[in-house]
Amino acid sequence: MSSENVLEVKNLRVHYTTARGDVQAVRDVSFSLKRGETLGLAGESGCGKSTLGYSLMRLLPANAKIISGEILLEGENVIDMDEVMLRKIRWKKISMIFQGAMNALNPVFTVGDQIAEVLTLHEGMTKREAYEVVRELFIQVGLDPSRIKDYPHQLSGGMKQRVVIAMALALNPSVVIADEPTTALDVTIQAQIQDLMKRLQRRYGLSMIYITHDLAVLAEVSHRVMIMYAGQIMEIGDVVKIYKRPVHPYTKGLIASVPTIQKVKEKRLISIPGAPPDLVNPPSGCPFRLRCPFAKEICKEKEPPYVNVDGVLVKCHFARELADVSPEEAWESVFEKYEYETV
Ligand SMILES: Nc1ncnc2c1ncn2[C@@H]1O[C@H](COP(=O)(O)OP(=O)(O)OP(=O)(O)O)[C@@H](O)[C@H]1O
Ligand SMILES: [Mg+2]
Predict the structure, then answer these.
(1) Separation of alpha carbons 120 and 106, rounded Å
(2) How many whole angstroms from 50 Cα to the centroid of ligand 1?
(3) What is the CB neighbour count within 10 angstroms for residue 327?
(4) pLDDT given for residue 104 in this prediction
(5) Are residues 286 and 295 in contact, defined by beta-carbon separation less than 8 angstroms?
(6) Which of 20, 128, 322, 337 is deepest in the core (most CB within 10 A)?
(7) Whose CA is nearest to atom 6 of ligand 1?
(8) What residues flank ligand 1, with Cβ below 6 Å?
(9) Full-model pTM
């Protein structure tokens, strides 16, 4: 394990048992996270982003199982850990800002008590000591310390989200997973929380996995990005390289679908037609082939390898051929065909 990597994930597979069969939510995912780096994770709803996040914390629901793989957190395999070990690393070494967590704050305790509890339980602090830290955390996340004794319902959405962020940072973890930390908020507050995340990132040198389906946000916060589809990483690499020259047809499609004023004016707000496949029976070969304008026979027959295109890894048989096709060019004909149905 390279010492600059705080996290290394190798060939991770995670399934959910359901009455319909196993949902293959994460299918052979590998990546690493460098110390101080923010890795952005994007992809359509249901592609496995949260499942991947929960797996790293080993906080999966009871019907989930890790089928195979390694999750090396500062060199130690999280998959081999028992509950006692896990309790030692959760919050302290790896923490998560859960999707929708601000609505899951306990209504019967003050927000100060809820953060203080993390500190008393895990660090053995007295309540008084914990409150000192909570006060400091409040200032860091832009909350007035006078709100410590407030109950969740007394706070606005943005303030509650700040509480949740403070909780995730309370034990100074090596890795923070932020799962859609701004999605439930209105646009102005979203921007404020994004600024806060960037500030915290710089101040604490956080190593972070930032999950969002908003590509504009992703570009703002990430050093590298990974694009996930049907449980697999389709493209992973430097943020500037990927936004300048997205190689995978899926990444090109996501970027071509980002709304701009121009597109709104011309009534050309389009998204990739169709929906991700059912993960109980994922398609053979490349899962994106069913929606891909460039799909050929080989895409059905053979799972694509990762192709290195100028340092960016792309899971596509035609990565080299398609590298310089612009997102608009790649999707123009498809979008034109669907324009009237989707606008
Ligand atoms: N507890 C569960 N039991 C069964 N299937 C589940 C469970 N949780 C998630 N899934 C399925 O696993 C797949 C991945 O879901 P996941 O929540 O990880 O996606 P996501 O990328 O986080 O989506 P979103 O953008 O909507 O948050 C989906 O097909 C989903 O329906
Ligand atoms: Mg999710």
Answers:
(1) 17
(2) 7
(3) 18
(4) 81
(5) yes
(6) 322
(7) 16
(8) 16, 18, 23, 25, 43, 45-51, 61, 63, 99, 213, 279
(9) 0.93
